[in-house]
Predict the 3D structure of the following.
Amino acid sequence: MNLVNRTNKYYLIFFIFLFPLMVAVDYYLIKYVVNKEVDEILIHESERITFSLNENGELPSSSYLLSITPIDKDFPVLNNKSRDTLIYQAYKDKLVPHRTYDFGAKINSKKVKISLKHALLEMNKLIIWLFVTTTLIILLLVVGLFLINQGIYKWAWKPFFENLSKLTNYDVTKKSPVQLENSSIAEFQELNQIVTVLMDQVRKDFQNLKEFNENISHEIQTPLAIIRNKMVLLLESQNLNKKELQWVQTVYQEANKLSKIGKSLTLISRIENQEFTRLDNVDVRAVVENIVSNMEEMIAFKDLKMDVKLNPVTMKCDLILINILLTNLIKNAIQHNHERGSIKILLNEKKFEIVNTGKVSKVETAQLFNRFQRGDKTKESLGLGLAINKKICELYGFQLDYGYHDEKHKLSLGFNK
Amino acid sequence: MKILVIEDNVELLKDIKNFLEDQGNICEIASDYQSALMKAVIFPYDILVVDIMLPDGTGLDIIKEVKKENIDVGIIIISAKNAVGDKVNGLEIGADDYLTKPFYLAELNARIKALYRRKAYKGSKEIIFNEIKIRPENHEIFVNDRLMSLTKKEFDIIHFFVANRNRLLTKEAIAEHLWGDHIEMADSFNFIYTHLANLRKKITKFGGKDYIKSIYSVGYKFSD
């Protein structure tokens, strides 16, 4: 539930509770005020009647007079109370709510109780009107608040939502910083500041890490070259016994491995950095044909049966990358094959597919594309080939799928064109 | 042939110099931009081997300067950057070849020889080693003047061997020469082993001597 809906929900709940409360409070308040007012009128009238009786012993005419009842004792002082009561009105033929006021007096030395009355008819109508107006006010408040809320949501939160979508698309590998929308609201300004600082920090850290990785990959290459050269000199010197020779050979091989790791990691980070921006018109069929012919002797050496079906396909991408990708795939099909096995290559507008015989892989398919993951640990491979492939596929939006059926590996590369 | 090697790492520089001098070349060295530029402009060389990253400048500027002075020299870039951009830049401003560090000295040697032959003899020079004659531009090899039929890789192997005669060629160096950089081929060593056996047979069948010697299990040497 978004912010505006949630706010509206709480407003609504609040008003639902507030409404009966307000009506009740208003009702009793107004009733109290009206009663007090009426009581005052009646008390004033009673004083006028008492005064007239005391002065000249006559009962003055009064429109408020309800009844005069003779009583035995004195009218109790504390008992001259006002009450609500229903009195039958003949002209209306119904009971009408009245306020009455009793007080004691003497007429011709006789004790009497005089009751005065005042109709409450208009007051009841007022209360109904009150109810209606309160309802109206509250409705207007609800609608007004709802509209204001919508307005605030659209206007004041606009930069917030724009920033949100910008941050959603934020890519730490991109060098350009995200420019956040300004807002006149202090909280949003503060948020922008904090987010900007955070993003800068993240980007800086990422850049540092990346540069560190790249530098390591570069910087090891020259020392490795020297190690390798010296090892070859040692091997050529012919003064070594068999054991020493093996040691030197091991160092040489490991140095080679290290160098290959460095080169592959450099390649991966350069793909990640999007340094391959060339868009050549690549004739994919020619690339595949070229790779297959380069591997021809190796294929013949393993006595593999080739079934190559290539349709003409051209694509806009970097020739070097597409060459690395396809070489890796074809090379893998040769390498992870057994003698007198078979390879089937298919190329059309939609996909490049390569199916080859070979042993089943022990690694989960998803992990197969991770760095240093190998299907077959016994072989001399580094497991970086597929990671490179994955990076190239990510760059161009290719879909790389792997499956194993009927003792055959099947790798298909969807071009998504 | 006369070669100037420009490289800021002195140890690597010594390795390259020793290797190239063993091959009968005159090899001079420079380890910084200033002295390299001076030598390259003043003295005549057949080949310049240029490292891109130098302490006080870039090898690309040296190449530009040499090209501006219209000096006719073959140029090979060696760089640790492995950046395709560098490669493209280098070749665009007039370098002839590009090697990524770490390279095998045998590979550098083969590239230098191939470049020298292209420049000095327009590629038409035959390479002769006793009874073996190589015509690189036609991918042809003759033994006792009889043309051997070879696959492309077999030709590449012999060509590589003859260019690096009397030197130990490790299996790794041969594999990289045959298939290039980013390929890690588990079967390549078996392949090389089998093919060399075939090649020996072929050459002896044509009356040639068996020059390919296996050095322990490390690699091979092509020598008398």
About this structure: Chain A touches chain B through 47 residues (CB under 8 Å). The first helix of chain A runs from residue 3 to 56.
